[in-house]
Design goal:
Blueprint (H helix, E strand, L loop, with lengths): L7 H11 L10 E4 L5 H4 L4 E4 L5 E3 L5 E3 L8 E4 L6 H8 L3 H4 L1 H13 L2 H13 L7 H17 L4 H7 L5 H8 L1 H14 L2
Parallel strand pairs: 1-5
Antiparallel strand pairs: 2-5, 3-4
Length: 192
């Protein structure tokens, strides 16, 4: 489903409708900016800003400032290439601090993943220059990305546009049912 052009308030409201548990974040600023593109950043067209995070510098050298009052969470998003679902998934970045329950569930999910698999991709990405923040940060990013991939829903085209693996759920059910069950617990929590 092709993203419809939406304003920030509507994207935020629809994201909270998808995952009501995101309300633990409190008031979140969502700013829609069509100039926030992968070309401008070198990597993406949506960014979560934690409270107090004033700026994000991208590989292109561009700096993007926190899009709202910097004392609260915010998401800067290109509304032409993203949906409420991608906003909701990006808002997950703040949930570990906002919700102890989510934090515990995410830790259990991460601990159920294969360390060998994470290490394999870390070493591969390190050789290619993409893991400069160290293993612990890489591991957390891997866990977050795996969860967002599992939560993502859409057509084959949607998965390609979002750069997610459309067969991740099926594969995880087969090769790591314990992690898949932890994912289901998180999904249920988010929809409450």
């Amino acid at each position: 489903m092709q993203p419809k052009k939406r304003n920030g308030r509507r994207l935020r409201r629809e994201a909270l409708d998808l995952y009501p548990a995101l309300s633990a974040l409190g008031r979140v600023t969502v700013k829609a900016d069509p100039s926030f593109t992968r070309e401008a950043t070198g990597i993406g067209d949506i960014e979560y800003f934690a409270p107090g995070q004033k700026v994000v510098r991208y590989p292109t050298g561009e700096d993007f400032k926190h899009p709202g009052p910097d004392r609260r969470p915010a998401v800067l998003v290109n509304p032409e290439t993203n949906t409420a679902q991608t906003v909701a998934l990006d808002m997950l970045h703040g949930m570990s601090e906002a919700s102890p329950q989510f934090s515990g569930m995410l830790k259990e999910f991460g601990d159920s993943l294969s360390e060998e698999e994470i290490r394999y991709f870390y070493n591969k990405d390190l050789k290619e220059g993409y893991a400069g923040d160290g293993y612990e940060q890489y591991r957390q990013n891997y866990i977050d990305g795996k969860l967002r991939n599992l939560l993502f829903e859409g057509s084959e085209e949607d998965f390609v546009r979002a750069r997610y693996n459309p067969t991740e759920r099926q594969e995880m059910m087969e090769y790591n049912p314990a992690a898949y069950n932890k994912f289901l617990e998180i999904q249920k929590y988010l929809k409450q």
